[in-house]
Structures are given as C-alpha cells and as structure tokens.
Design brief:
Layout: H1 2-17, H2 37-50, E1 51-52, E2 55-56, H3 58-62, H4 66-77, H5 85-107, E3 125-127, E4 130-132, H6 134-146, H7 175-187, E5 193-196, E6 201-204, H8 207-210, H9 212-216, H10 222-227, E7 239-242
Parallel strand pairs: 6-7
Antiparallel strand pairs: 1-2, 3-4, 5-6
Amino acid sequence: MKAILYIYASLCLLLAISPVTSLFAAPGTAVVAARDVSFYTAVTRFLQEHVQEGQLNYKALQKDQGQLQRLVQQLAVYNLENAPASERKAFYLNAYNLLVLHQVLAHYPLKSVKDVPGFFDERQFRVAGEMLTLNQLEKQKLMAPYRDARVHFALVCAARSCPPLLNEAYAPGKVEEQLEAQTKRALQDDGFIKVQPKGKKVLVSELFKWYREDFLRHAPSVPAYINRYRSHPLPAGYTLGYYPYNWALNDTGR
C-alpha cells in the first residue's frame, strides 16, 4: 500500500510541474506546451542554420524542408490558453516569419512574393488552432493588442526592402529587448534610412508611409520616431521622402 501511495504521489507531482497541455490529445497529434522553451530553441536552431545577414538561401532551404515543416506543424497546435502577453507576442512574431518562409518555398523558384496572388490576404494557415492569413496575423494578433510600431521591424515579408530577418527566435522572456534591438538595427542602417546631405533630404522606407499612424502613436512625427533609435539624429531641416520598396525576394541563393 505504501508503494502504491508513493507512486500516486509521484505521478501527481510530475503532472503538477510538467508543461503538459493535454493528456487527451488525439494519437499522433503534436501538442506544444505553453511556455515550453523547446519550441523557441528549435526556431532559433532553424534560423541560425539558414539566415545569412538577414537574408535566406531558399535554394539550400528547399533541399532541407523537414525542419521548417515540423515548426509549421507545431505552430498549428501551439497552446496559447492562459499564456501571458509576452508569450503571445513572441509566438505570433515567429509564426508570421516562419509562415512567410513556408509559403515562399511552396512557390519557389520565385522572383517576388508579389507574384503569388493572395500571398498576404487570402491564403490561410492554422495558427494556435485558428485559421489566419498573414495580414490577420499582423493586424489582429500583433498590432491590435500591442499597438507597438517596433513590430514592423520584426516581421519580414521576404522582400529585399524588408528589415533583416533576425537569426534567432523571438522569445517570451526577452521579446521586448529583441524588438528594441531590431528597431535600432534598422533605423541606424544607412541602407534603410538614407541621409543625403547634398540635397538635404532623408529617404526612408515606405513602411513609414503605409503605417504612419502606428509610428505617430509613439512620437509627434516620423523623423522624431526615427531619432529615438539613432545614435546620430537626423539633421534638422532635412526634407523627408520615401524610396521605392524593393519587392524582389530576399534570396542569397541566386
């Protein structure tokens, strides 16, 4: 009897501390526990293997899609029930970027995601149990609840003019630090923010035109927002303009 009680107590303790999300999942169904760091570790491992200076070698990735397919399967069943805001934010950032890569490979070889009808607003994916487009992921799961303009420097739409893709997962415990670092990285990049002393102009990404209201929630003007993240502020009196967005695929394998 003592042995039985001991086993029962041990099982109770194990279940209390394990990150198990469901004891009754259908056979063969992968269930990713909320706050399970193994998912974020796997995303980091994948990105570090395939991201080169913020770009992707899709040709090489196409030959080794298994790792990405497994991550996409995990995205579909990830359990966000009772998850804190930091976990939800990190999860949806990773989900967006992984699903962009997944969809690019489905149509590769590809010159631009613009060549795929409905890339952002028609094709749906299962994400944490919901069917969502990429636009819904961005607007409903990230911008609406968090109203954080830094998200625009973390989501990568597989275009040359996108901010560089981070080569590690956004993680619940440090997602705010990562967003801050990504924003500084983008806004201090001479290729992203083009200061032209000769004409006294500053040319910036069209992201600042498309999502202007998002940035104005944090600063009185677009230049003021940019200056929050620059070591050397934009020169006063310079005219603000926008350079054309380059939608060519962010592919290093060509």
